[in-house]
Amino acid sequence: MTPAKPPCVFLIDDDPFILRSVERLFFATSYVIEPYGSARLFLEHADLGRHGCIILDISMPDMPGPALQEHLLRCRSLLPIIFLTGNGDVANSVRAMKLGACDFLTKPVEADVLLDSVELALALNRKRLDERDLVGAIQARLGQLTRRERQVLDLVVAGRLNKQIAAELGTVEHTIKLHRASVMRKMAADSISDLVTAVNTLRLLRPEAE
Q1: Which long-range contacts (CB under 8 A, 24 or more apart) does 139-147 make?
Q2: Residues 6+ apart with CB under 8 A from 26
Q3: Looking at the DSSP assignment, which residues form a beta bridge with residue 32?
Q4: 40-44, 81-85, 119-123, 179-183 — which is least confidently predicted?
Q5: Does 16 score more than 50 pLDDT?
Q6: Do the domain assignments include residue 57?
Q7: Does residue 27 lie within any of the structural domains?
Q8: 78: which DSSP letter?
Q9: What is the pLDDT of residues 43-80, one digit of tens each?
């Protein structure tokens, strides 16, 4: 079994001093650090699906921080962004905040503050990745259901009894029992509670998939 890659901290800043300083800071940690001097280089080379987070200068000359943030959101990136800001960068800071930035740190940043922020960002990314995997597994199971089985599933989750489902779908109760057993098997559910949990999880984490 291939060991999991260590978390990656993507550092994007056009200041070589900042790149070197943050690299040195993370040298003693278990994290991998990938420094980029421009947003363009980051987009060309970074693995956006990796477990990690981004430390981003909010005022990058080639692409302002919030513009890169918007691009990553369109790409469905799950990487949390920690912005490094200057005292006078209010407009960009407000814009990034509205887009869901993970944290804002004012330069110069204290080492322990940055490390704590990265730890929280990585935990958030791990949660997002786990949720994505869970949603994918539920959607894959739902994809195995026939149209009639999906109808039965929706009615079971809504609390209908077998005889009520049979009447609503214009069939007999025995047929509904067969469909229900098939749904339980394909959804890898041991109980009705498992079915309800799976459907509600999908509705909560990916409402557009319903």
Answers
A1: 139/202, 139/206, 139/209, 141/186, 141/187, 141/188, 141/198, 142/187, 142/202, 144/186, 145/183, 145/186, 145/187
A2: 9, 33
A3: 8
A4: 81-85
A5: yes
A6: yes
A7: yes
A8: -
A9: 999 999 999 999 999 888 899 888 999 999 999 999 99
Domain CATH number, residue 62? 3.40.50.2300
Rounded to 5, what percent of the chain is helix, strand, coil? 55, 10, 30
Question: What are the residues whose beta carbons fall under 8 Å from the beta carbon of 36, sequence distance 6 or more?
Answer: 10, 11, 12, 13, 42, 45, 46
End-to-end CA, the chain: 35
Domain boundary among 128, 158, 187: 128
Question: 64 with 112, same domain?
Answer: yes
Higher pLDDT, 207 or 186: 186
Q: Which two tokens stand for residue 176?
A: 């509904």
pLDDT score of 1 more than 70: no
Q: What is the pTM of this model?
A: 0.83
Residues 172 and 99 in one domain: no
Residues facing residue 85 across a β-bridge:
106
Judge contact between 66 and 100, C-beta under 8 A: no
Is the domain of 148 the same as that of 172? yes
pLDDT at 87: 67
Structural domains of the chain, count? 2
Domain enclosing residue 20, as ranges: 8-128
Q: Is residue 93 one of the residues assigned to a domain? A: yes
Within-domain flag for 161: yes
